[in-house]
Design brief:
By secondary structure, the chain is an all-alpha fold. Helices cover 64% and strands 3% of the residues.
Length: 390
């Protein structure tokens, strides 16, 4: 006779238990490993912090230092050959289905752990239990699942727990989150928001928002976005079990100033990703108008612009033949050429760390003057919006 376990549930009860247990693991990853340890966006009460460490040991065998180091390296080397798991480098299929293998490979890189793993727990439990016996926890969880739910349901629940993070976090977030979806912010990498409702993966679905403001404890930014991980953090905060340290800046607007001043400069730099996302709308507007105009008297140029639409709208650099084709097509579109060139000039504003604030202000004022004198309607409107950042 097969042991049935202490809990005799209907089939949907076992499904509910599996989803509940895996959701606790998701919460541990997004709140503890990601937002607290990797990015220091919040502090957790020692009781909460250790519960998450214990739970992750039981359900994943992941080591805090390894996870934080690999994730920090991902941000530092995003979409380059040194990125541990970029689908732009390895391909979407390899990251989606084999992301856990890329994680394990990078976890053996001692240089990664030494350079990026600082500030993570190194107490007695971490050294002598969680790190030294990383796989003992999942074995204990298997025994607990079998005792609680019986041989077959318990084994299936355990397999679900073990496979949940490798697929959804290592595969979907690291893969799909850099390949498919929508973008709220024009960041340099290929990160995307998979869906606007971050429930199944704890809010990590809002991956583009995270790459724009990596140290923010809250991943949602638009009114229609939901970050369930942030809801849990707010609940912990109300109970005195968490302290939020960092949030993404929220842009504020006033009447456009006659000329940009130091306050405008500070607001523009602080909200640079919001600025670029709004500028992307100007690019899209001009692009649509120019493609429509060119298709009537220069169909070839219109087709070139259509074929390079994604790169144009995202501000991605082109090389070789594509770059030459674009330059040729833009000779017949002064408006689009101007909008594209001035986007690079605007983005360069906050990359000039060597410049004084007086120099940066003059550059911003000059940019606004040229934008409003360009005759390009979308640029004129955007410049006025830029002068309204407060």
């Amino acid at each position: 006779m097969i042991f049935s376990g202490f809990f005799d549930l209907p089939w949907w009860g076992y499904v509910a238990v599996a989803l509940g247990l895996t959701h606790v693991t998701i919460a541990a990853v997004t709140i503890y490993l990601h937002r607290c340890q990797a990015h220091r966006a919040l502090d957790l009460h020692p009781v909460v912090s250790h519960f998450f460490r214990l739970w992750l040991w039981l359900t994943t065998g992941m080591i805090t230092k390894e996870w934080a180091a690999i994730h920090r390296k991902h941000h530092a080397k995003c979409e380059t050959a040194e990125d541990p798991h970029s689908p732009q480098i390895y391909g979407i299929n390899r990251v989606l289905w084999g992301g856990v293998l890329l994680y394990v490979k990078e976890s053996h890189n001692k240089e990664t752990l030494e350079r990026y793993g600082h500030g993570t727990p190194e107490d007695w439990m971490e050294r002598h239990v969680y790190t030294r016996h990383a796989m003992a926890g999942v074995t204990l969880m298997l025994a607990a699942d079998l005792l609680a739910f019986g041989l077959v349901p318990g084994a299936l629940i355990w397999v679900t727990q073990i496979a949940w993070i490798p697929f959804w976090a290592a595969g979907v977030i690291n893969g799909v989150g850099h390949f498919f979806g929508y973008r709220s912010y024009d960041v340099p990498d290929a990160s995307t928001n998979i869906v606007p409702w971050g429930i199944l993966i704890g809010g990590e679905e809002l991956h583009n928002n995270h790459h724009a403001f990596a140290s923010s404890a809250k991943l949602s930014s638009k009114w229609y976005e939901l970050d369930i991980g942030w809801m849990y953090i707010r609940l912990l905060e109300m109970l005195g079990l968490a302290t939020v340290k960092k949030l993404a800046p929220q842009p504020r607007f006033a009447q456009p100033k006659p000329a940009a001043d130091f306050d405008t400069l500070h607001a523009v730099i602080a909200n640079r990703y919001d600025v670029l996302s709004r500028y992307a709308k100007s690019v899209r507007r001009t692009y649509t108008e120019e493609v429509e105009r060119l298709k009537h008297w220069s169909p070839r140029d219109a087709e070139v612009l259509r074929s390079l639409k994604r790169a144009l709208l995202r501000g991605q650099a082109l090389a070789g033949a594509e770059r030459a084709r674009l330059a040729d097509a833009l000779t017949n579109s002064r408006a689009l050429a101007t909008v594209i060139a001035m986007r690079h000039e605007l983005a360069a504003l906050w990359d000039r760390s060597h410049a004084s604030k007086e120099q940066l202000l003059r550059q911003l004022q000059d940019w606004c003057r040229r934008a409003e004198a360009s005759g390009v309607a979308s640029l004129v409107d955007f410049s006025q919006r830029l002068r309204s950042y407060a």
